[in-house]
Specification:
It is a single chain. The protein has six helices and two strands, in the order H-H-H-H-H-E-E-H. It is mainly α. It has one domain (5-90): lambda repressor-like DNA-binding domains (434 Repressor (Amino-terminal Domain)). Strands 1-2 form a two-stranded antiparallel sheet. Helix 1 (5-15) packs across helix 3, helix 1 packs parallel to helix 4 and helix 1 crosses helix 5. It is globular.
Length: 94
């Protein structure tokens, strides 16, 4: 089983009534890239997970928890990093 971040992104995006295009503009991640994540044909980078989480106003932990709920990730209690990058680094202005 692979990671299910795409399903987590799609679920939260739809809960917030956002289109892929809106999320792309808010996050700075291309719409086609978001589409490939949501279809689970591509794994998001740590940087893009952070950008998308920030745009959706959720923590990386929340995305990780949803991905785990669908059986795609190993559970981590109190995750403060994703692939070795502290969550606070995801929210830095570029």
């Amino acid at each position: 089983m692979g990671y299910r971040f795409g399903e987590a992104i799609k679920k939260i995006r739809k809960e917030k009534h956002l289109s892929q295009e809106s999320l792309a503009k808010m996050s700075g991640v291309k719409r086609s890239t978001i589409d490939s994540y949501e279809l689970n044909t591509r794994m998001p980078s740590a940087a893009n997970i952070g950008k998308i989480a920030h745009a959706l106003d959720v923590s990386v932990q929340r995305l990780y928890d949803l991905a785990y709920q669908w059986g795609g990730c190993t559970p981590l209690d109190g995750i403060d990093t994703y692939w070795g990058v502290p969550e606070r680094e995801f929210h830095k202005e570029e």
